[in-house]
Every structure is written in C-alpha cells, then in structure tokens.
Amino acid sequence: MRYVVTSRNAAAESVYGLVRAVLGGEIPLRIRCWDGSEAGPPDAPVRLVLRRRRALRRLVWAPNELGIARCFVSGDLDVESDFFESLSHLERVVGSQSGTLDVDGAVKWDVIKTGLRLRAFGLPPKPPTEEIRLGGRLHSKRRDAEAISHHYDVGNDFYALVLGPSMTYSCAVWGEGVTSLEEAQTAKVDLVARKLGLREGMRVLDVGCGWGTFVIHAAREYGARAVGVTLSQAQADFARKRVAEEGLSDLVEIRVQDYRDVRDGPYDAISSIGMAEHVGQSMLPTYAKALYDLLKPEGRLLNHAISRKAGVPGRTTDKTSFINRYVFPDGELEPVSVMAGAIEEAGFEIRDVEALREHYALTLRAWVANLEEHWQDAVRLTSEGRARVWRLYMAASALTFERGSIGVNQVLAVKTSDKGKSGFPRTRTALLS
C-alpha cells in the first residue's frame, strides 16, 4: 500500500512506518502527530491523532492493550474516524495478540531507533487516575465491595445520561416492534418476571438490583413483594427514591448487602440480572448454593449473565486487560456451560436457557449513542477520562458481542420439591404466557 507523507522528517512519517512494521501493515491508517505532521492514505478509514509525544512512552512501557487504553483514556491518543469502524480494524490486529505485541528482532531494533529519534524513551508516565488496582484477597467481601464501588459509584446522573430513563444496566430485549431502548429494557424485565412466574404476594429477591428497575416492575405490574440487594450505596439511594416516588415502599425493600449475607429466606423466586459476572469462577459454587438455600421448594432462579465463548481465553483478570484495570476489576466471564454446571451442582434443575447475544450488541450501541449525544454533560459529571473509558469499553464490547466472542444468557432453574415437583407448565409457550 502506498502512503503519503505531508511533512518530510516529521513525527508522523516515523510513527506511521513504525505502526506498519509492528502491525504488519494490515490497518488502512492515517496518523496526525503532535507537531501537525500527517502520514498515510488521505482516505484511510482509520484516522488516529497522537496529541502528545507521551503516547509513545506509554506504548513503549506497555506495548499491548493496556498501553493503547492508557493513551486513549489520558487523551494522548484520539480517534477522528468512525469509532466503531476504527475499533473493528484495530481489534482484528491488536485484539488477536496475547499480551505484548509479538515482533521480530529487526522490528524491535527499528522501534528502538525510532523511539530515540522521537525522544519517546524515559520514565513510564503515570497511568490515568481512572485506572485501579485492588488489594486484598480476591473475591473477599471487602474487595468485591471496592470493585463494585469503582464501577457503579461513578454518579447516578452520569448513568442516567448513558442508560436513559430505564436506569437498567444490562442487556435489553429488542423484540418485534420495539424501537427504543426504554421499550427494550421494559421488555427485558417483563421477560424475567414471566419466566419466574411472578404473581401477587410472591416474595422475590433481586441479587445485584442496580437502580431498582426490576423490583419496581415486579411490584407494580405483578404485585410481588420484592427485596433488592446491591453493594453500591449510590445505587441503593437512587433505587429507594424511585420506590418511594412510585408509591411502592410497602412492597419493595432496597438493601446495601452482600448476597452472602442474605438470611431471610425462603423466597418464591430469585433474579440475578448482570451480577454473576462479578462473582468469579472460584466463588460460583458458593453463589449458586447461597441462592439455592434461599429458595422454597418449586422456587425459580433466573440467572442472566454475560459469558465468554468456550475455548476463548478469559482475559478479564489479565494484568494487561483494559477491562480489568478500568471497567470491571475482578470481573470474570465463564462459558455458559460453567455457569449452568455450578447451578446444577448446587441442586437446581435447569429448565430453560436463552441466548441474547445480538440483543446486547444493540443495547451497547444505544448506550454509546446516548454518551456521544451528551458528551459534554458526561465529562462535566465525571471526568473526560472516565467518559473516554466508557466510550471505549462499550463500543469495544458491542463489537465483541457482534463477533461472537462473548454472549449473554438467561438460565432459568428450579429448586424441585422432595418429590421432584417443579411447578412448571409442560410447554415453553405456557411458561411465557
């Protein structure tokens, strides 16, 4: 591929050649650097801007996914082309690498020479303040609370911009005739309610209740008595206010509580919507057994969780993972078979599994659109770095769902009676009616 250098001996020429050498020339790319120089095809679909020389130092010290993320979150690197298309091109190359980018000796020597010429070497820049490393024992109650706070206590006003009026932070269901995110999220919580067979007077526990959307729907539309638990104080405060405004305080209780500390069973039904990803594989048996013990015989569990494709490495706990350092610290994605196995081993009988992968891609694209539409407000409510984290993670996640590397599944299970009774109708049609 021929490329154009608009200013000879300027930074862009060197950086462009280096990127092509490291990535194999597979990205149709145009680069503009801090000195105003540009290189690459003028009509390239990917247009990157290196606003500061510091971007190169970040990549020298972390030549991987994390280094690129630090560049973007800090504002040292910008994307001026279509964000989704650009990420798709970059992910095909960078995302296929495991850990540090693998280059041969000659390319490494070129990197060193170019780095010296551009004065890119030096002490490692401090990571953006949005990056986190947790201490303590993995998946202890204290560490889990810190992980949840990092992600969910960003600010309710910020979440309202991204999530929209439903304040629902999980995959929506885009059925026939559904045209808005709000409608799709209502369809999702109602699907969960119907799968659980909710009726007036039933006790339902929502583990990881977020801002209270499901428990409010369960109480208002089905007359259920609902308890929602979350580790986020900000979520709990918001959910309690919503419950009071809906006039449902006699039916809905919101607690700041770890699922391991819930002791007031039995419940008729339990929902866990977008929470199990935080549990961790080592804790899945504890998680599933705790929910089993909280249910009465013939009680149902609906576990809605993101999963990784079997055979695809789970890198969310990798030290070079952007998601682990910036978005969901300690989050772990497991194949649906692992999740279903833990649920079965706890004593449940699995009755239904539904995949919603394409629905989550649509949901994430809607969230990105909301964020981009309200960008200045999002920056004002949090920080530019935090808004950049969200834009990058949600757009990249949408592409990952579309590609099929990760999915999301609703696993419906029941705690059968001593005599094996499930209380389920004989057909799936009847179940959802």
Concise structural overview:
The chain is an alpha/beta fold. It has helices at residues 11-23, 54-61, 65-74, 83-94, 105-117, 141-152, 156-163, 181-195, 213-222, 233-245, 284-294, 322-327, 336-345, 357-373, 375-381, 384-403, 428-432, and strands at 29-32, 38-39, 46-50, 77-79, 203-207, 225-230, 252-256, 267-273, 295-308, 349-355, 406-415.
Report on this model:
The protein has 433 residues and is of the alpha/beta class. Helix content is 44%, strand content 16%. It has helices at 11-23, 54-61, 65-74, 83-94, 105-117, 141-152, 156-163, 181-195, 213-222, 233-245, 284-294, 322-327, 336-345, 357-373, 375-381, 384-403, 428-432; strands at residues 29-32, 38-39, 46-50, 77-79, 203-207, 225-230, 252-256, 267-273, 295-308, 349-355, 406-415. It has a 7-stranded mixed beta sheet with strand order 7-6-5-8-9-11-10, with helices on both faces. The N and C termini lie far apart (58 Å). Mean pLDDT is 89; it is low at 1-8 and 96-100.
Annotation keywords:
single chain; 433 residues; alpha/beta; seven-stranded mixed sheet; four-stranded mixed sheet; disordered N terminus
Number of strands: 11
Strand arrangement, major sheet:
7-6-5-8-9-11-10
Tell me the series of helices and strands, N- to C-terminal: HEEEHHEHHHHHEHEHEEHEHHEHHHEH
* Poorly predicted segments: 1-8, 96-100
Distance N terminus to C terminus?
58 Å
Mean of pLDDT: 89
Shape: elongated
Q: What's the total helix number?
A: 17
- Percent range for helical residues? 40-55%
The class by helix and strand makeup works out as alpha/beta
